Amino acid sequence: MSQDQKRPFRVVVVGAGIVGLSLSHCLQLAGIDHVVLEKHDKVVSVQGAALIIWPQVARIFDQFGILKRIHETTVPVCRERRRWPDGTINHTGKTVQTMSKNFDMPSIIFDRQRCVEHLYDGLPDKSYVRTSAKVDRVEHTESGIRVVTTDGRVEEGDIVIGSDGVHSTIRQQMWDHAAKDDPSAVPETDKNCFSTDFGGLFGVSDLTEDLKLLDSESNVTFGHGHTEMLFTQPGKAYWAIIFKDDHHKPPVRRDGSEQAMEALVEQYGDVPLTDHIKLKQLWKQRSRAGLLNIEEGMLEKWHSGRFVLVGDSAHKASLTYHLPLCLVIHTDPPKMTADLGLGANIAIEGAVTLCNILNRETKSDKHRHFTTAELSALFTEYQAARYVRAKAFTDLSGKATRMNSYQTYFGRFMTGYVAPWLAPIQLRKLSEAFAKGPKLDYVPTRTINEDAPGWKLGEKKEAEGASAVKYLVAAAAGGVAVSYLLMQRVEGRAWRFGMTF
């Protein structure tokens, strides 16, 4: 028996963030040998503030066995408001609350860092995760790969999965290897597909009584060249301002120093997040904050050789909480918003899809090894299953951010006046899309009710879909007409729309 036949199929995952830890859960549940390499000295997420977990990923977390604990440590959203640039209320919505009702489960909004902690603490075996393991290079052997870390340690395996974010080391390693082995394997456009037009200042502040906020509410504020978000959980306020910045392609690293953040607060400090809270007030009460570029883009090819990418290393969406409802029409799968954290949700879906394929191919023989041609077929199957859905989120999230930050007159009109009229349609389309999300096909769910009405929407017939499109078009036309008439009666508030009537 050869050495290859003696060793099991093994996966090397790079990056122990939300996606990398989700991969470890999936692989452990499948009984697939692996290691997760994390460059930092501990498993922690410091990028961004709050995160919403939508029903399809809550179902996956239930399969991981961590959903019950998450529900025990979070409070469901009880109030959702969209606001004009002056902080007054544009619309009181029920997106998150409706999802909770449709899928018969409490909504989840919490700190991204807490999400990472739940994923890590809930791992069946934490020994699969190696910290202080920064990748130096990936070498190809006759039948696999060798991942060498900067401290000289080596991890061998059959494939390497890059879940190391938008500034992925593994993506670059993949490109470098393809350039030597098969230059045509990676589209040249992929090497310059990411760009930035927006920056984001994120923070977490103490939820004090003077803020007059509920224990769990969401606020999204439109603005001229910026848009704000404010979410709460007991004792904490999670906030962000997304602002228009210079265009960079490829992206350049942003100065995230305290001085740079102070300069932004000086510029945007009087921007309202509600009718009584301004950014500078939350800044003074912050416990932590960060300044980031909001990268956008998507690769045409997510794999090459024994490399495959999952999450932000392959597709990166802009960040927005509210999608103007006019964008959620007649698409299957629907083109939906990248609501807060929906990029993370879609990335976790990708991890599940890939692991379903790996489990299918190895469940009868854990010592099975694959040629690069066989792996290419499997990775092509994975990308094909994910590409349309991921691209829809990536493209539409950018449009939503631009509408909420008033980049065009049309966007201002649609997000401020038409969107509220289409809320029932958006909620149904979102429910349908969430219901179609993947789950692990080799382990059962544990606590959720998959007979809830929301899950049934993913099974709707094509005829129903066509009927919904006709209703959507009629509703959109009616909404525009009614909105126009209403606008004629609010000339005194026309400044909000940014136009003169």
Explain how this protein is built:
Pfam families: FAD_binding_3 (PF01494). Belongs to the paxM FAD-dependent monooxygenase family. One of its GO terms (molecular function) is monooxygenase activity. With about 500 residues, this protein is α/β, with parallel strands linked by helices. It has a single domain (about 5-495), classed as FAD/NAD(P)-binding domain (3-Layer(bba) Sandwich), CATH 3.50.50.60. Helices cover about 40% and strands about 20% of the residues. The protein has 15 helices and 19 strands. The strands form 4 sheets. The protein has an 8-stranded mixed β-sheet with strand order 5-4-13-14-15-12-16-19. A 6-stranded mixed β-sheet has the order 7-2-1-11-18-17, sandwiched between helices. Strands 8-9-10 form a 3-stranded antiparallel β-sheet, with helices on one face. It is globular, with a radius of gyration of 23 Å. Mean pLDDT is about 85; it is low at about 320-340 and about 460-500.
CATH topology: FAD/NAD(P)-binding domain
Mean pLDDT: 86
Biggest sheet record: 8 strands, mixed
* Separate helix tally: 15
Outline the low-pLDDT stretches.
321-340, 461-501
What kind of assembly state do the chains in view correspond to? Answer: single chain
**Whole-number tally of structural domains:** 1
What topology, given as strand order, has the largest sheet?
5-4-13-14-15-12-16-19
Structural class: alpha/beta
Family: Belongs to the paxM FAD-dependent monooxygenase family.
InterPro entries: FAD-bd, FAD/NAD-bd_sf, FAD_mOase_fung
Pfam family, one: FAD_binding_3
Keywords: FAD, Flavoprotein, Oxidoreductase
